Amino acid sequence: MGRNLGPRIRRVVLSKEGLAHVERRGSADGSFELPFGRAELGEVLRSLVVWVERGEGRTTALAFDAPEDPDAVLAEKKLRFEPGTTLRGIVHAARGRRVRVAGSDGPIEGEVLGFEESTGGQGPRRWLLLRTGAGQIEVVDMASVRQIELADPALQGSLDVLVNRGRTSAGGDGRAVRVVLAGRVEDVRVLYVVPAAPFQLSYRLALAGAEARLFAFALVQNPLEEDLEDVELVLSSAQAAAASSDSYARADRQRDDETENATKLERTRRAHGQPATIRAAAPLGTLVALAGRAPERIDEADTMDTEQAAAELAAAAAAEPREWTAEGPVSIPRRGAAMVPVLATSVRVRKERIFREGAGPSPDLVLCFDNDTGVRLEEGRCAVYDEGRYVGESAIGAATRGAPVRVSFTKDPGVRCHRTSRKDTTFAGLAFEAGGLIEQRRVEERHVYCVRSDHSTAVDVVVEVPRKDGRTLTGEGITPIVETPRAMRFRVEVPPRGEAKMEVCEAWTETTRLAYESIEPGQIETWRASGRVDAAQLDILSELSRNVEEASRFEAERVRLDRDLVDIFTRHGKIAEQLAVLRDAGPEGALRARYVSELDAMQQRINPMEAEMRRLRDEADTRRRAAERALASLARSS
């Protein structure tokens, strides 16, 4: 006889956060069980709630299988038996306990001594040994035994453990929660949450000219240990509010704000005619098998919204409902999966060819439509069919109601684009600062896009030109159709089996910092010839350059004299040491006289050299001060 599962499942809400909210309703006659996996039991016990909505019965307890390993518990109590040895094991566990045996010769009662087994020609024979009285042992042929009654209460408890844990062990990771219900009730409600795989949305676009049929399927998995039969399925992408242990202290403070926000949200929904739950269009048919997932092609460049538009869309998304409800009842086998149809509607579409740098010579084929489906589209992959033929797949991004949707699904091999560029650099001006001057150059890079088409009719191609920080883009004789901080798009009409060209100028400024002492007269004359620098500033710059050059020349000469003076002092010291040991007479006297003559000559050179060094230092200082005055003048004029 199967388990009594009580009221059937009526509603399941699957969320993208990996949870499934299960609602059971219906009548119940006595206690019933709810099957779960071992890993799910903790989540269930944290969320389970049961109440009697209508009827005289009442809930008395919620019992559940312990999350412990049943085999380990049986082994600990010496009740874990290998297959084929259960009878021997039970008898062994009952040694010394009183039992009552019902056999063909009538009932026999005694204390269990043991179990014997022998093998003969007619097969194995088994006997149960009982002590029936003082000094009396009864040998009972097990072939004649039909029932063994355990009279000892402790032995009865061991048998209960063996049955309960054995059932749990046989069920593998399965666990059960038993709702102990006294009496019969007409309506009992059971609510709980279990972990579940997040649902995914998958779309289909079937093109027929300017019209397209848009279908949405939800890829869902049944997370339960039982079949789902004709249940209401709700898919929610809203975030559930989770309360952690440290959040209770803030609960009272937040309750008023949450109530006020909920009231405002409800008013907004009523004002815009938004229902609390989005109900999908008519079902598309019976459930189909879960399809294998193909790699997604998500084209990030398709969304061309500005920051303001993104903020408006985010505000609109926050006010929209975040649920999809399958229109018809859904059935999914235990731990199975299915694709549930949730949307079928028509949209008006247009095709665009968009060429992007780095994406190959052929432009992307993009389907564009406004989300006038009446629902908020969630992100999901999309397969595209054109006139009944599969042409590619991509992804649909999240889109609020009324927002534009773009689906880039394949390439157009009949159109090819390429770009050539030419860069020109010209002097733009000078900026004067205390530490040096900044030379500015204007750089213009002209990009020529050539688009060729093999189609027999004229086609429009949208050329997307990326924008870089600090640079400007200007179309030569053409106006952009879309302009964002990241790119500009230009529309080019290409004649049948012909080509068209488009030119865009990208301009920016480059700078180089130059130290004043590194500026040469030739550079100044080049800047003067450009006519982009004030002549008075260039005159001051020339004066500054001359003064810097003269100061450097004077300083170099002073350094040279200082080096020569050091050599003289070194020679002077060595001669003085020699004079201290030379005698006045004889050959040493002659050498002494020569050294004295050299010392006099050195002394005569030292004084003029020191005077010249002072003069050179003063001249260099004068030139530096003049350069500083010129620099200050340039800084004031810039």
Mean pLDDT, nearest integer? 79
User: Based on CA inertia axes, which overall geometry fits?
Assistant: elongated
Largest sheet: 8 strands, mixed
Helix percent band: 25-40%
How far apart the termini lie comes to 98 Å
- Number of E-type strands: 31
- Per DSSP, what share of the residues sits in E-state strands of 2 or more residues? 35-45%
Runs in which pLDDT lies below 50 for 5 or more consecutive residues are 241-255, 261-306
The Rg value, from CA coordinates, equals: 48 Å
Structural class: alpha+beta
Count helical runs. 9
Organism: Polyangium sorediatum
Biased composition (Basic and acidic residues): 249-268
Protein name: DUF4139 domain-containing protein
Region (Disordered): 245-276
Description:
It is a single chain. The chain has about 650 residues and is an alpha+beta fold. The chain is built from nine helices and 31 strands. Strands 1, 2, 4, 12, 15, 16, 17 and 18 form an eight-stranded mixed sheet that branches. Strand 6 and strand 7 form a beta hairpin. Helix 7 runs antiparallel to helix 8 and helix 8 runs antiparallel to helix 9. About 10% of the residues have low confidence. It comes from Polyangium sorediatum. This is DUF4139 domain-containing protein.
